[in-house]
Design goal:
Length: 109
């Protein structure tokens, strides 16, 4: 469980602060969602690769249905990319790290 701490888990109270500056990727997940758990190591890897460029956070949809609703998250895993607090992109479903990296690179050039 130690590696989970790499990515900050957010709740409604800290969400705005965490996402208001720069580019932030939020991983909407649930403990019971197999594809979500499979994306975990990949998220850790990407958060290292994009350190200083993109901030990574996670939101548990079971505990934060209001946040999930705000971004119309109906299926998970669901990744919302924010810039200065505004949604600029949303990716749904699991994907390879190459695919994900390619998508993210478009936003930091």
């Amino acid at each position: 469980m130690g590696n989970k701490d790499k990515i900050t888990e957010l709740s409604k109270s800290g969400f705005e602060d965490f996402t208001k500056d720069g580019i932030v990727l939020i991983d909407f997940f649930a403990e019971w969602c197999m594809p979500c758990l499979m994306m975990d190591p990949l998220m850790d890897e990407l958060s290292e690769k994009f350190k200083g460029k993109i901030k990574f956070g996670k939101v548990n949809v079971d505990d934060n249905s209001e946040l999930a609703g705000k971004f119309n998250v109906s299926s998970i895993p669901n990744f919302v990319l924010l810039k200065n607090g505004k949604e600029i992109e949303q990716f749904v479903g699991s994907m390879s790290s190459e695919e994900f990296e390619e998508k993210l690179n478009k936003f930091i050039k």
